[in-house]
Design a protein that fits this description.
The protein is of the alpha/beta class. Strand 6 and strand 7 form a beta hairpin. Helix 1 packs across helix 10. The relative contact order is 0.22.
């Protein structure tokens, strides 16, 4: 690598998405003509089994990654807290994805995040550094401005120029692996907001408004695939979590090429829909960056 210059209507929300443990099938019926679903939601007891089931429904990991390609796996590992607090992506899921990529023949797999807590502590305490390295990934620093490059963002209204990590810019494919959780500023964080971890200075995003700027993270380069860890969902006290944080046993994984759809589905799982949903999801859809109307998507619901 070169160095260069939420807690409302939980049951109702999951039911609205049709994600009970017994439900299976494709919605809506008119979308069944499509060979692959727009989004897969899998419920189960194992994140690794759910990932395998989801990718099988999407046509296999080989649809997204070719042999020899460089792949960035981008988890949320911004917080120096243990995995049971669910502030970071589950290490077992990230390890499994890395192993699958390497077994497929990916040339190189990288993992990094621009953390909020001290980066060394966050990498260590989250369990993600150890899990990713043992699986065969290269865990790269995200805490030094020398790894970020300024780029002009086409079509931006707010973030006309961003400093993005060189791995995000140069990877052939990006697998975005966020954790679903409550967020004090953005209401909910999942696929789109996880991309803030590829940006050096997040000050402009907060200053200009997260609902306006988060969609623009998709303008320069979209993830190849979004895999949302909704197994244990922090419903309050996010994004870092507190001793009194409340949790939902979501026991779910959501996978989609569309980060906007993934976020809309993630919000539905915890009942944060309609006027309660983050405005950045609606704003992204209105700008043509993805689909937020789940009723118009080909959704496959599975159990694993």
């Amino acid at each position: 690598m070169k160095r260069r210059t939420f807690l409302k209507g939980v049951a109702g929300g999951a039911a609205a998405l049709g994600l009970s443990s017994a439900s299976q099938g494709v919605v809506p019926a008119l979308a069944q003509e499509a060979r692959f679903p727009d989004l897969v939601a899998v419920r189960g007891d194992s994140l690794t089994a759910m990932f395998d089931r989801a990718l099988s429904a999407l046509g296999g990991l080989e649809r997204y990654v070719q042999k020899g390609e460089t792949v960035l796996v981008k988890p949320n590992m911004g917080w120096a807290v243990p995995p049971e607090l669910a502030a970071n992506t589950n290490p077992e899921l990230v390890s499994h994805i890395v192993k699958n990529l390497l077994n497929l023949g990916a040339g190189k797999v990288y993992v990094f995040d621009n953390t909020c807590d001290n980066w060394a502590a966050a990498y260590r305490e989250s369990g993600l550094e150890k899990a990713a390295k043992e699986a065969g990934a290269t865990v790269a620093p995200g805490n030094d401005s020398g790894y970020y490059q300024g780029v002009d963002v086409p079509g931006a209204k707010y973030l006309e120029r961003m400093e993005l990590h060189e791995l995000y810019l140069e990877a052939d494919k990006i697998i975005n692996v966020p954790v679903l959780k409550n967020h004090g500023g953005a209401k909910v964080t999942a696929a789109m907001k996880n991309l803030m971890g590829a940006v050096w200075s997040r000050g402009p995003l907060h200053r200009l408004g997260l609902d306006e700027t988060i969609p623009e993270l998709l303008l320069y380069k979209k993830p190849t695939l979004n895999v949302v860890d909704a197994f244990r969902v922090m419903l309050s006290g996010g994004p870092r979590g507190r001793g009194d944080s409340k949790y939902l046993a979501g026991r779910m994984l959501i996978a989609s090429e569309d980060a906007v759809a993934a976020d809309a589905a993630a919000c539905a799982v915890i009942g944060v829909t309609g006027v309660d949903a983050p405005d950045y999801i609606r704003n992204a859809a209105e700008r043509g960056l993805g689909a937020s109307d789940l009723s118009r998507l080909n959704i496959q619901r599975l159990t694993a």
